[in-house]
Input
Amino acid sequence: MRKLFTSAHVYLKVLTIIMTFSFLFNLAAKEDNFRWQDAAGEVDGFPFSKAFIDSIKNEHLSAKTARSSHYIEKELLSQSETLIYEVQWGPIKAGYLILSASPRSPNGQIRLGAKLLSNNYVSSIFKIRDYIISWVDAKELYPLFFEQHTREGKYKKDEYVIYDTMGERIIAGGKKSLKEIKAPPFTHDFISALYYTRSMELKPGDTFTINTFVDYKIYPIKLKVKSKETVKVNAGKFKCVLIEPKLVGDGDRLNKHDKLEIWISDDEHRVPVMAKSKVKVGSVTAKLVRISRHKTLVEDEDYQRPQESHQNDANYLQEHVNDLL
Output
């Protein structure tokens, strides 16, 4: 009986090993077929239309233009830029992060975008297709309009934020509610905060604070420039400055105990080369794999969105603004 039990135990272990290798092999095969370009195209239908954005901005904002006291040391974006990052959760390749920036002519704005895309491996468990867009003032780099489109597993949500810098307030909305929050002038979202940081001359020992709107609250984020280091990633070898942002207080997505480190290239472009974040459930790393730039300025066209676009913007606007205020 004991021999039979031992034989069965060995058999189950061998079977488990075979099944594990088979599972990993299948996942690897799936991953070979993954193209971030195709995944990125899946979210192109998410953004709100220009007509919708203009309507709600006209509803809530004055025509006056604000100017901050911060001197932008460098005109960061005179050309369009796309940065591709491979994202890992611990030792597991999880997907891609795509950061894009396009100067808009002639309205004096920059369109910043971030796409977070899970690969086949992670998508077989929990699919992520998130798209975040921030429209910022091209001269001062403070945000004007922010939209976040979340597709995570079965969860789906579309939200927007209007930054009324002159009125010192923020109007944040989703499908069922709008909320007005008092805000210091030139409060940032987390994408505009990154590009605002890139406009600065970063030297070890420097510290600065950026007020950032996250999860319907405003948090001061303190950034410390720690050191200069050389970082090697798939996109190349870069001399970098290491900065460490610290959240003051606790939020739903971040808290003061989380550790985030960002390596930014110490050159004229100040590109985020690598980021590492240690959170409660492990660590996440994003490494730069590709840089693309071109000088074509994009006009203020209305975007073609073949998937999931808000086709009836008049009704959508009526539902989101007039009925909720």
In short: The domain at 33-62+80-296 is CATH 2.40.360 (YmcC-like fold). The chain has six helices and 15 strands.
